[in-house]
């Protein structure tokens, strides 16, 4: 069967499963809409968290960026994985014990201030909105290739699907949908990786294949890749070009941003007990590592296959009429372009003036089965996995946006007398508005998927993380300090990113960056500013009320279920 036929079958089956689950688990109350009634098993919550966490950036774009820039791309692996450990150990159990629905709920109650809650609502919407824009771009990439339409049309189709099942089920529907999506995405990622590893190295374990020799030769995969890339004018695959300062700041922003992401934190409110929050975090880390440890292998194998299929075994280029099928298939989406600069009728890919190929980084994972000439059903399976990854995270983020609007902004702010029914309606309207906005940014992205997502992590690091950490571990932190810190952190970080990515992108070079820190890593500096401002303002303003200090003391003891509730 053709790739498109297989894609319709496999994607159709998985979508029927997701929509069926969403209808079966349809939220009937605000508790079910926000935290799935607090009754999800830790293993199921671990799977749902992993699916929520492994977004289009992890599934589609992370291996792509590693494939194109090699060693430097490893910063995304280290930052995102390390961040989850930080979240599981330092934050999840305490937030679960505190027992609020959302991060703005925690900020509002801990800092005894409606203003603090409103600032947190703004930060949550801004961070989540930036993140979901990257997911919509990922959905668009998948639909563009497999429906053979322009990427903008792919994004519009994705918007409609996300709206249907995310807005219908709330957290209860999303949780059980994400369990199914995890199974689909991990199977879809591992199957082609295993096949490709066997074909290139003879080793069925991709992680071991990356360090193995190529079948029939004594040359190691990474040695061959280094030779190919340097010969073609690229930096050696295993060498880094980023400064150590920038690597540190990006890694820290991704780690700390993880621990401040509202859509990940809210997952720990869906389990029955504090103990279950720790257990589900452990399961999530195990499930996440299955994909993250495989991504470097997928990146390296795809890079070898990409270079060899475009340039041919003699590295002199391939005639246009003999172009590999993956090139002609992806050209229809506008994400692969060929320009015959020397009019020799041959395609050539290199890192210097000889280059004739413009290849979008976000296509590498989805194109990897075609690069390796794997069966059509494997190509279609990867499409289903890519959609599962992008849609699961998009749904979680949209829930954060909608609950921030309905629960925190309206119910706890401007309209405290809202009924449950009105609150649910407001949440769904908020999600619809967010989808339209995210779709616009998906069509006009400020970077590739992993980069856009990295910006959202920086914003989360600069805004939420200090307020949450100080709120848990420093009982004397007052509302004035927290509010001033959050505003300073997010304003500085957003301004830096907007300047270098939208206002003056031509100036985005290491020479012009502050201290050599790229926009992807500036969230770490924003976080430091947040801490400094919070502590300084705290020293010169009123002391925290005694009852709030006692409450902070109580959440540091691992007793009690801490059921989600309204105050």
From TrEMBL:
Entry membrane topology: Multi-pass membrane protein
GO cellular component: plasma membrane
One Pfam assignment: SSF
GO molecular function terms noted in the UniProt entry: symporter activity
Coiled-coil regions, chain positions: none
Record-linked InterPro entries: Na/Glc_symporter_sf (IPR038377), Na/solute_symporter (IPR001734), Na/solute_symporter_CS (IPR018212), Na/solute_symporter_VC_2705 (IPR019899), Sodium:Solute_Symporter (IPR050277)
Family according to the record: Belongs to the sodium:solute symporter (SSF) (TC 2.A.21) family.
Name of this protein: Sodium:solute symporter
Native organism: Photobacterium aphoticum
């Amino acid at each position: 069967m053709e790739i498109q036929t297989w894609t319709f079958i496999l994607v159709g089956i998985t979508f029927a499963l997701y929509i069926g689950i969403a209808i079966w688990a349809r939220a009937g109350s605000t508790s079910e809409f926000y935290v799935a009634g607090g009754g999800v098993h830790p293993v199921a919550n671990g799977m749902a968290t992993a699916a929520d966490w492994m977004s289009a950036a992890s599934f589609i774009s992370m291996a792509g960026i590693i494939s194109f820039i090699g060693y430097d791309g490893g910063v995304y692996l280290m930052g995102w994985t390390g961040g989850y450990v930080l979240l599981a150990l330092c934050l999840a159990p305490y937030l679960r014990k505190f027992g609020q629905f959302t991060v703005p709920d925690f900020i509002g109650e801990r800092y005894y201030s409606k203003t603090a809650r409103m600032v947190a609502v703004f930060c949550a919407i801004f961070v989540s909105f930036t993140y979901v824009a990257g997911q919509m771009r990922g959905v668009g990439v998948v639909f563009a290739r497999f429906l053979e339409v322009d990427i903008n049309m792919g994004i519009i189709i994705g918007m409609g699907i996300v709206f249907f099942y995310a807005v219908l089920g709330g957290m209860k529907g999303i949780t059980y949908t994400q369990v199914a999506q995890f199974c689909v995405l991990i199977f879809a990622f591992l199957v082609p990786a295993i096949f490709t590893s066997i074909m290139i190295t003879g080793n069925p374990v991709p992680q071991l294949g990356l360090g193995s020799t190529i079948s029939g030769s004594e040359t190691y995969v990474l040695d061959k890749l280094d030779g190919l890339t340097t010969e073609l004018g690229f930096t050696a695959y295993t060498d880094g070009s980023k400064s150590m300062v920038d690597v540190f700041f990006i890694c820290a922003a991704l780690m700390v941003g993880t621990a401040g992401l509202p859509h990940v934190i809210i997952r720990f409110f869906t389990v029955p007990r504090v103990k279950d929050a720790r257990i589900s975090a452990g399961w999530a880390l195990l499930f996440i590592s299955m994909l993250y440890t495989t991504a470097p292998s997928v990146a390296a194998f795809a890079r070898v296959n990409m270079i060899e299929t475009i340039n041919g075994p003699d590295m002199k280029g391939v005639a246009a009429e003999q172009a590999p099928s993956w090139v002609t298939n992806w050209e229809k989406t506008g994400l692969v372009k060929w320009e015959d600069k020397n009019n020799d009728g041959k395609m050539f890919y290199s890192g210097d003036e000889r280059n004739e190929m413009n290849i979008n980084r976000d296509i590498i994972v989805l194109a990897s089965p075609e690069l390796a000439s794997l069966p059509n059903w494997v190509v279609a399976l990867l499409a289903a996995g890519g959609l599962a990854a992008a849609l699961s995270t998009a749904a979680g983020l949209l829930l954060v946006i909608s609950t921030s609007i309905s629960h925190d902004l309206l119910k706890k702010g401007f309209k405290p007398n809202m009924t449950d029914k009105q609150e649910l309606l407001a949440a769904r309207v908020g999600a619809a508005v967010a989808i339209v906005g995210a779709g616009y940014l998906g069509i006009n992205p400020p970077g590739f998927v992993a980069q856009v997502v990295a910006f959202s992590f920086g914003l989360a690091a600069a805004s939420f993380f200090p307020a949450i950490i100080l709120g848990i571990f420093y009982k004397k932190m007052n509302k004035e300090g927290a509010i001033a810190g959050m505003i300073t952190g997010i304003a500085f970080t957003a301004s830096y990113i907007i300047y270098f990515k939208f206002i003056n992108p031509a100036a985005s070079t290491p020479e012009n960056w502050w201290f050599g820190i790229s926009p992807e890593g500036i969230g770490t500096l924003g976080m430091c500013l947040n801490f400094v401002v919070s502590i300084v303002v705290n020293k010169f303003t009123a002391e925290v009320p005694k009852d709030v200090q006692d409450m902070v003391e109580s959440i540091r003891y691992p007793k009690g279920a801490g059921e989600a509730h309204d105050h």
